[in-house]
Design a protein that fits this description.
Blueprint lengths: L2 H4 L36 H15 L8 H8 L4 E3 L8 H5 L7 H32 L1 H26 L11 E4 L15 E3 H18 L9 H6 L3 H14 L3 H8 L36 E5 L15 H5 L8 E3 L21 E3 L2 E3 L14 E5 H16 L4 H12 L15 H15 L6 H7 L26 H6 L7
Antiparallel strand pairs: 1-5, 2-3, 4-8, 6-7
Helix pairs in contact: 2-5, 2-6, 5-6, 6-7, 7-9, 9-10, 9-12, 10-12, 12-13, 12-14, 13-14
Length: 487
C-alpha cells in the first residue's frame, strides 16, 4: 500500500439531513475539514462516515470496476485486444509483476477500504455508538464489518493460495483490524488463509446479527446499495463455497431460498430472480435479484473514472473494447442456445464478439456494478447440494432450471438429463460461466477447485502449481512492511 492509503482521511461533511440516503452520500464530498476528534461528534457525521466506506469500496481500482474485470480476464472467456499494460494485458497473460498496476492498485484500494472500516469501528467504540444510539450503532457497525469481510475475501482471491491447497494453511495477507491514523503501524506478518477466512466469517456472522432486515418495502435503492441481513447470508454462501464447506453453504442458503420453485427469500428483502435477466442490468438497477450492487452516477467522483469501468473494457460500442469474447470460450458451447436471452448481451463489432450490452451505459459509465446476485445464491446451493449428497439431487436440478429457464425456455433439465452427479456438477459450473459472464466470478470458480486456468489466444495455461496461478504481493507493501513475505 502507498503511505497515503495507510493514513485515514476523515471525510469532511456538508449540511446533510440525518439518515437521508441519497446517491451522492455513498461518496460524500469534503466541504470542510473535520478533525479526528469531531468526526463522530454528531449523528449526521457518523452516518456520513459509514456511507463513505461504500464510496471507498466502489473505487475504480476495486469494486467500481477492476476487481470484477480481473476476475473475468484471468479466465478463458476473453481475448485481449490492445496489449495495454495499463488496462491489464499482463493480468490477462497471467504474468503481472509485484510492481504491476493491477497488483499495486487493487491491494492499495482494498486495504484503504479495510482501514476506513477499522477507523470507523474504532470511532464507533470510542464515541459514535453513544451519539447515534444502540439500534443505529448496531446497524452501522454491522455494515462496516460486512464491507471489511468482502474486502479481505477479495484480497484472498488474487494474492493467496486457494483454501483447498492445504486447507487454508498457506500464507494469506496481513490481517489488520485496527485503524491506522499515523506512522508506526506498517509491519505485520501475513496471517494464514484459514485465519483470514475465520475473520471474514466472524465479520459476516456479526453482520447478519446486526444488520437491518430491510430498509423498507419501497426502499429499493438502499436494499440494493447497502448491506442488510440477507446480504451477509448471501455472501456467506460464496465464502463457504470457496472454502469447499458445502454443508455450510446449504445451511446459509436455506435461510433465504425456499425449498421449491419459484425460489424466493421468505424473510428480509424478498429476493427473487427477475423474469427477464436484462432488467438486472438496466436502470434503475434495483431489482430484488440485486442483493448488493455498487451504484454509479454522472456526478464527478461518483463513477469509476477513466479506464476502470466495466463498459470501457467489455464494450466496443460505448467503450474501448479492451477485451473481446474468446471465440473458443463459453460462447462457442452448443449447449448455450442461440435463443437464450443472455446471448442478447453479445453483439459483433469489427468482426469480433463483444459483451457490448451487459454494461451499455456510455461514458461516464453509470452502470451499477454487481457484487452479488440472487442467481448466484441459487447456483451456490445447487452445487453444494450435489457435492454433499453425491447424487443427482432433485432440488439442485430445480435450481439450475430456475436460472436457465428464465433466459432459455427451450431447455429444461430433468434427473434423467444427468447420468451421474459429476455430470450435474459440470452443468452447474457451465451455467455459472454463462450466467455470470462479465461479473468477475470465473477466477474464483477456477481457483477454488484448483483447476487449471485454460489457455486463450496467445496466453498460456496455468496449472495450480505454476508461477502466476496467484499474484505476487504488491511491491509497495513489501517495501513498507518488512515482515511481509512474497508469494
Amino acid at each position: 500500500m502507498k503511505i497515503a492509503n495507510k493514513y485515514i482521511l476523515i471525510a469532511g461533511l456538508g449540511a446533510i439531513s440525518l439518515f437521508s440516503c441519497k446517491r451522492d452520500l455513498l461518496s460524500p464530498v469534503s466541504q470542510t475539514s473535520i478533525t479526528d476528534a469531531s468526526a463522530f461528534s454528531t449523528a449526521a457525521r457518523v452516518q456520513a462516515q459509514l456511507l463513505s466506506l461504500y464510496g471507498t469500496m466502489k473505487g475504480g481500482n476495486f469494486y467500481g470496476g477492476r476487481y470484477v474485470i480481473y476476475g473475468d480476464i484471468r479466465g478463458e472467456e476473453f481475448i485481449n485486444e490492445t496489449g495495454n499494460l495499463v488496462t491489464s494485458s499482463d493480468v490477462w497473460n497471467l504474468n503481472p509483476t509485484n510492481s504491476a498496476t493491477a497488483v499495486q492498485t487493487l491491494w492499495a484500494q482494498a486495504y484503504a477500504t479495510i482501514n476506513n472500516c477499522n477507523v470507523f469501528l474504532d470511532g464507533m467504540a470510542a464515541t459514535g455508538s453513544a451519539v447515534v444510539g444502540t439500534t443505529l450503532a448496531t446497524n452501522f457497525i454491522a455494515e462496516a464489518k460486512l464491507i471489511r469481510a468482502v474486502s479481505y475475501y477479495s484480497l484472498l482471491q488474487y494474492y493467496a493460495r486457494p483454501y483447498a491447497d492445504g486447507n487454508g494453511s498457506k500464507p494469506g495477507v496481513p490481517l489488520r483490524l485496527t485503524g491506522i491514523k499515523g506512522t508506526g503501524s506498517t509491519n505485520l506478518v501475513r496471517s494464514s488463509v484459514a485465519d483470514i477466512y475465520t475473520q471474514i466469517l466472524k465479520d459476516l456472522n456479526d453482520a447478519e446479527a446486526g444488520l437491518p432486515l430491510t430498509y423498507g418495502a419501497v426502499a429499493s435503492y438502499n436494499n440494493t446499495t447497502r448491506a442488510h441481513r440477507n446480504t451477509a447470508i448471501a455472501f456467506k454462501t460464496r465464502v463457504y463455497l470457496t472454502m469447499q464447506q458445502y454443508a455450510n453453504v446449504i445451511t446459509e442458503a436455506n435461510k433465504i431460498v425456499s425449498a421449491a420453485a419459484p425460489f424466493t427469500a421468505a424473510t428480509g428483502v424478498t429476493h427473487a430472480l427477475q423474469a427477464n435477466i436484462s432488467n438486472v442490468f438496466i436502470a434503475p438497477y434495483t431489482t430484488t435479484e440485486s442483493i448488493l450492487s455498487m451504484p454509479m452516477t454522472t456526478t464527478g467522483g461518483d463513477n469509476p473514472g477513466t479506464q476502470n469501468p466495466l463498459g470501457y473494457y467489455y464494450s466496443k460500442v460505448t467503450g474501448n473494447g479492451e477485451f473481446s469474447l474468446n471465440p473458443a470460450g463459453i460462447i462457442a458451447d452448443a449447449g448455450w442456445t442461440a435463443t437464450d436471452k443472455r446471448r442478447s448481451f453479445i453483439s459483433v463489432s469489427s468482426g469480433k464478439s463483444f459483451l457490448n450490452l451487459k454494461y451499455a451505459a456510455p461514458s461516464p459509465y453509470t452502470d451499477y456494478v454487481p457484487v452479488i446476485r440472487y442467481a448466484e445464491v441459487l447456483l451456490n446451493l445447487a452445487e453444494a447440494k450435489v457435492r454433499t449428497t453425491n447424487t443427482v439431487d432433485a432440488q439442485a436440478v430445480a435450481l439450475i432450471n430456475a436460472v436457465r429457464n428464465r433466459s432459455d425456455a427451450t431447455v429444461t433439465f430433468t434427473a434423467g438429463s444427468f447420468a451421474t452427479s459429476a455430470d450435474l456438477i459440470a452443468a452447474i459450473l457451465k451455467e455459472r460461466r454463462i450466467e455470470f459472464l462479465g461479473e468477475g466470478l470465473r477466477n474464483t470458480d477456477l481457483l477454488r477447485l484448483l483447476q487449471t486456468i485454460p489457455a486463450k489466444g496467445t496466453a498460456q495455461q496455468k496449472t495450480a502449481s505454476d508461477v502466476g496461478y496467484i499474484w505476487p504481493i504488491s511491491s509497495t507493501e513489501l517495501s513498507l512492511n518488512t515482515l511481509c513475505t512474497d508469494n
